[in-house]
Structures are given as structure tokens and as C-alpha cells.
TrEMBL record:
Protein name as catalogued: BolA family transcriptional regulator
Entry similarity comment: Belongs to the BolA/IbaG family.
InterPro entries: BolA (IPR002634), BolA-like_sf (IPR036065), BolA/IbaG_stress_morph_reg (IPR050961)
Organism of provenance: Rhodoferax sediminis
A Pfam family of this chain: BolA
Record Gene3D superfamilies: BolA-like
UniProt superkingdom: Bacteria
Amino acid sequence: MTAEELQSLIAAALPCDHIELEGDGRHWYATIVSAEFEGRRAIQRHQRVYAALGAKMLTDEVHALSMKTFTPAEWAVEPH
């Protein structure tokens, strides 16, 4: 899987202000900014992203996904 394919899957299911991906095709690191994360704990945010990937996680197309998730307000003050 390419970064573009992974980004498209996430963006199709979750409105995002920013998605940044790094990885080798199976192991990924993502930074995701979405208003849908407002009021949600980290585990709930991650579950939302995993739900967006659905079967891709179950079939091992995406073997590992480490992520940082932010609301737009959190992202505005996060050094990057």
C-alpha cells in the first residue's frame, strides 16, 4: 500500500484538516488532524481511524499504524 492510498482511505471516511504519513508500505506513522476528534480520548480517536481502514488492517495490508491525532485547536498550538 502506498502513502497516497492510505491517505485516501482515511480521508474518505474521516474529514481531515491534515494527514501526514511516513512508512514502508506495511508499517506506518501518521499525524492526523480532524474536528471529529473534538471531545474524544486518544483511544477513541485511534479507533475512529482504525474503523476507516477496516479490512486493510485485518488482511495485514497495513500491518502497523502508529499515530498522533489532534483536533484543529490542538494542532494550532502543537510545534511542527
